[in-house]
């Protein structure tokens, strides 16, 4: 795919989801980091239900390390992999207290050193909390990018990120990240994509296949 083709896709997505944004509720960089950590293999909706009370009980890193691990586990038990995530949260909070005076670091290379924080989480935090352009590749971004031919089917998550960074102007990275997520979450779903009404059907490999299958069924 070339930049002209990508521009057309980005403009259509922008018209579909002009107000795309981070749907994880948070009021600061620390809360966002915890929320993104919790969101791995879990919906934003479930995370927001859990953090509604979690962020009332725990305001600072000190609060998370002051309770027994099993208490924190109970507080987030509705989240998938809650035991591992509780361990990561406490370890992350200890490192933030020891190394960064209780504040979430602003640099990507510092963030990825925190327990439970990978490249995707770091990208979400730097872009949404600190205004640094970044494209975080989650399951929606990966699926949509591959279906639309912005990345190859066998590309790794990192390869998808690199290809998107080349195709998308840097100042649009963060907005594009949100729009790709909204497009994947509300339109181009994993199981039931809305191919029949999709304005990007002509460039979507997956969509063309699905529509051809539907057409063949009707003709039988």
UniProtKB/TrEMBL annotation:
Keywords: 4Fe-4S, DNA damage, DNA repair, DNA-binding, Endonuclease, Glycosidase, Hydrolase, Iron, Iron-sulfur, Lyase, Metal-binding, Nuclease. CDD domains: ENDO3c (cd00056). [4Fe-4S] cluster binds at residues 188, 195, 198, 204. SUPFAM superfamilies: DNA-glycosylase. The keyword Ribonucleoprotein does not apply. Its cofactor is [4Fe-4S] cluster. It catalyses: 2'-deoxyribonucleotide-(2'-deoxyribose 5'-phosphate)-2'-deoxyribonucleotide-DNA = a 3'-end 2'-deoxyribonucleotide-(2,3-dehydro-2,3-deoxyribose 5'-phosphate)-DNA + a 5'-end 5'-phospho-2'-deoxyribonucleoside-DNA + H(+). It comes from the Bacteria. Residues 38-186 form the HhH-GPD domain. Binds 1 [4Fe-4S] cluster. It is an enzyme of class 4 (lyase). Its EC number is 4.2.99.18. Belongs to the Nth/MutY family. DNA repair enzyme that has both DNA N-glycosylase activity and AP-lyase activity. The DNA N-glycosylase activity releases various damaged pyrimidines from DNA by cleaving the N-glycosidic bond, leaving an AP (apurinic/apyrimidinic) site. The AP-lyase activity cleaves the phosphodiester bond 3' to the AP site by a beta-elimination, leaving a 3'-terminal unsaturated sugar and a product with a terminal 5'-phosphate. This is Endonuclease III. It comes from Paenibacillus baimaensis.
